[in-house]
Protein backbone atom coordinates (compact mmCIF):
# COMPACT_ATOMS: atom_id res chain seq x y z
CA UNK A 1 0.00 0.00 0.00
CA UNK A 2 1.04 3.62 -0.19
CA UNK A 3 2.78 4.90 2.98
CA UNK A 4 2.78 8.57 1.98
CA UNK A 5 0.59 10.98 3.93
CA UNK A 6 -2.82 11.63 2.43
CA UNK A 7 -1.81 15.16 1.42
CA UNK A 8 0.97 13.78 -0.83
CA UNK A 9 -1.14 11.18 -2.66
CA UNK A 10 -2.24 12.16 -6.16
CA UNK A 11 -5.98 12.64 -5.83
CA UNK A 12 -8.21 13.53 -8.71
CA UNK A 13 -9.34 17.13 -8.19
CA UNK A 14 -7.64 16.93 -4.75
CA UNK A 15 -10.78 15.31 -3.40
CA UNK A 16 -11.04 11.98 -1.65
CA UNK A 17 -14.70 11.59 -2.67
CA UNK A 18 -13.84 12.12 -6.36
CA UNK A 19 -10.94 9.68 -5.97
CA UNK A 20 -13.21 7.04 -4.42
CA UNK A 21 -15.77 7.57 -7.18
CA UNK A 22 -13.00 7.18 -9.77
CA UNK A 23 -11.90 3.91 -8.18
CA UNK A 24 -15.48 2.59 -8.19
CA UNK A 25 -15.80 3.56 -11.85
CA UNK A 26 -12.55 1.79 -12.74
CA UNK A 27 -13.69 -1.34 -10.94
CA UNK A 28 -17.06 -1.21 -12.69
CA UNK A 29 -15.22 -1.30 -16.02
CA UNK A 30 -13.42 -4.44 -14.86
CA UNK A 31 -16.69 -6.06 -13.79
CA UNK A 32 -18.25 -5.17 -17.12
CA UNK A 33 -15.32 -6.71 -18.99
CA UNK A 34 -15.59 -9.91 -16.94
CA UNK A 35 -19.33 -10.00 -17.63
CA UNK A 36 -18.63 -9.74 -21.37
CA UNK A 37 -16.26 -12.71 -21.02
CA UNK A 38 -18.94 -14.74 -19.24
CA UNK A 39 -21.39 -13.90 -22.03
CA UNK A 40 -18.88 -15.09 -24.63
CA UNK A 41 -18.33 -18.29 -22.62
CA UNK A 42 -22.06 -19.02 -22.65
CA UNK A 43 -22.15 -18.38 -26.40
CA UNK A 44 -19.22 -20.77 -26.85
CA UNK A 45 -20.99 -23.46 -24.78
CA UNK A 46 -24.21 -23.16 -26.77
CA UNK A 47 -22.49 -23.08 -30.15
CA UNK A 48 -20.28 -26.02 -29.16
CA UNK A 49 -23.41 -28.02 -28.34
CA UNK A 50 -24.97 -27.14 -31.70
CA UNK A 51 -21.76 -27.97 -33.57
CA UNK A 52 -21.28 -31.25 -31.69
CA UNK A 53 -24.87 -32.39 -32.13
CA UNK A 54 -24.86 -31.34 -35.77
CA UNK A 55 -21.67 -33.21 -36.57
CA UNK A 56 -22.84 -36.30 -34.66
CA UNK A 57 -26.30 -36.37 -36.24
CA UNK A 58 -24.81 -35.92 -39.68
CA UNK A 59 -22.31 -38.73 -39.09
CA UNK A 60 -24.91 -41.15 -37.69
CA UNK A 61 -27.36 -40.59 -40.53
CA UNK A 62 -24.54 -40.66 -43.06
CA UNK A 63 -23.52 -44.13 -41.89
CA UNK A 64 -27.15 -45.26 -41.76
CA UNK A 65 -27.65 -44.20 -45.38
CA UNK A 66 -24.69 -46.38 -46.36
CA UNK A 67 -26.40 -49.37 -44.72
CA UNK A 68 -29.96 -48.58 -45.84
CA UNK A 69 -29.92 -47.29 -49.42
CA UNK A 70 -33.39 -45.62 -49.50
CA UNK A 71 -33.20 -43.78 -46.16
CA UNK A 72 -34.36 -40.17 -46.15
CA UNK A 73 -31.62 -37.49 -46.06
CA UNK A 74 -33.52 -35.33 -43.55
CA UNK A 75 -31.27 -36.37 -40.65
CA UNK A 76 -28.14 -35.58 -42.61
CA UNK A 77 -29.54 -32.17 -43.54
CA UNK A 78 -30.58 -31.51 -39.95
CA UNK A 79 -27.05 -32.27 -38.79
CA UNK A 80 -25.60 -29.92 -41.38
CA UNK A 81 -28.09 -27.20 -40.37
CA UNK A 82 -27.19 -27.52 -36.67
CA UNK A 83 -23.49 -27.42 -37.49
CA UNK A 84 -23.98 -24.29 -39.59
CA UNK A 85 -26.13 -22.61 -36.91
CA UNK A 86 -23.46 -23.31 -34.30
CA UNK A 87 -20.82 -21.72 -36.50
CA UNK A 88 -23.01 -18.67 -37.17
CA UNK A 89 -23.71 -18.26 -33.47
CA UNK A 90 -20.01 -18.46 -32.68
CA UNK A 91 -19.14 -15.88 -35.36
CA UNK A 92 -21.79 -13.50 -33.99
CA UNK A 93 -20.55 -14.02 -30.42
CA UNK A 94 -16.92 -13.35 -31.34
CA UNK A 95 -17.87 -10.27 -33.35
CA UNK A 96 -20.10 -8.92 -30.58
CA UNK A 97 -17.42 -9.53 -27.94
CA UNK A 98 -14.72 -7.79 -29.98
CA UNK A 99 -16.98 -4.84 -30.79
CA UNK A 100 -18.02 -4.46 -27.16
CA UNK A 101 -14.38 -4.61 -26.00
CA UNK A 102 -13.39 -1.82 -28.40
CA UNK A 103 -16.33 0.33 -27.28
CA UNK A 104 -15.45 -0.24 -23.62
CA UNK A 105 -11.84 0.78 -24.30
CA UNK A 106 -13.02 3.98 -26.00
CA UNK A 107 -15.31 4.86 -23.08
CA UNK A 108 -12.52 4.33 -20.59
CA UNK A 109 -10.09 6.39 -22.69
CA UNK A 110 -12.64 9.21 -22.79
CA UNK A 111 -12.94 9.22 -19.00
CA UNK A 112 -9.15 9.25 -18.75
CA UNK A 113 -8.94 12.22 -21.15
CA UNK A 114 -11.43 14.08 -18.94
CA UNK A 115 -9.18 13.26 -15.94
CA UNK A 116 -12.00 11.39 -14.23
CA UNK A 117 -10.00 8.16 -13.85
CA UNK A 118 -6.26 7.61 -13.42
CA UNK A 119 -5.45 5.02 -16.06
CA UNK A 120 -6.59 4.39 -19.60
CA UNK A 121 -6.62 0.63 -20.20
CA UNK A 122 -6.76 -0.99 -23.60
CA UNK A 123 -8.60 -4.26 -23.31
CA UNK A 124 -6.87 -7.01 -25.23
CA UNK A 125 -7.93 -10.47 -26.33
CA UNK A 126 -8.84 -12.68 -23.39
CA UNK A 127 -8.25 -16.44 -23.19
CA UNK A 128 -11.99 -16.89 -23.75
CA UNK A 129 -11.79 -15.01 -27.05
CA UNK A 130 -8.74 -17.00 -28.16
CA UNK A 131 -10.50 -20.30 -27.39
CA UNK A 132 -13.62 -19.10 -29.23
CA UNK A 133 -11.56 -18.32 -32.34
CA UNK A 134 -9.82 -21.72 -32.15
CA UNK A 135 -13.20 -23.43 -31.78
CA UNK A 136 -14.43 -21.52 -34.83
CA UNK A 137 -11.46 -22.80 -36.84
CA UNK A 138 -12.15 -26.39 -35.72
CA UNK A 139 -15.85 -26.02 -36.55
CA UNK A 140 -15.06 -24.70 -40.01
CA UNK A 141 -12.80 -27.71 -40.57
CA UNK A 142 -15.63 -29.99 -39.45
CA UNK A 143 -18.03 -28.23 -41.81
CA UNK A 144 -15.53 -28.61 -44.65
CA UNK A 145 -15.19 -32.30 -43.85
CA UNK A 146 -18.97 -32.77 -43.87
CA UNK A 147 -19.39 -30.94 -47.16
CA UNK A 148 -16.47 -32.84 -48.72
CA UNK A 149 -18.01 -36.18 -47.67
CA UNK A 150 -21.41 -35.18 -49.06
CA UNK A 151 -19.92 -34.37 -52.45
CA UNK A 152 -17.83 -37.51 -52.74
From TrEMBL:
<protein>
    <submittedName>
        <fullName>YidH family protein</fullName>
    </submittedName>
</protein>
<keyword id="KW-0472">Membrane</keyword>
<keyword id="KW-1133">Transmembrane helix</keyword>
<dbReference type="Pfam" id="PF02656">
    <property type="entry name" value="DUF202"/>
</dbReference>
<feature type="transmembrane region" description="Helical">
    <location>
        <begin position="80"/>
        <end position="104"/>
    </location>
</feature>
<feature type="transmembrane region" description="Helical">
    <location>
        <begin position="125"/>
        <end position="148"/>
    </location>
</feature>
<keyword id="KW-0812">Transmembrane</keyword>
<feature type="domain" description="DUF202">
    <location>
        <begin position="31"/>
        <end position="99"/>
    </location>
</feature>
<dbReference type="InterPro" id="IPR003807">
    <property type="entry name" value="DUF202"/>
</dbReference>
<feature type="transmembrane region" description="Helical">
    <location>
        <begin position="48"/>
        <end position="68"/>
    </location>
</feature>
Amino acid sequence: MNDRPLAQIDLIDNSTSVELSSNRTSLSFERTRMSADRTLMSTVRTSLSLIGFGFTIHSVFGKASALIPNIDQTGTRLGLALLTLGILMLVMGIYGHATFGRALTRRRERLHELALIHHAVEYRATPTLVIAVLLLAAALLALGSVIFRMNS
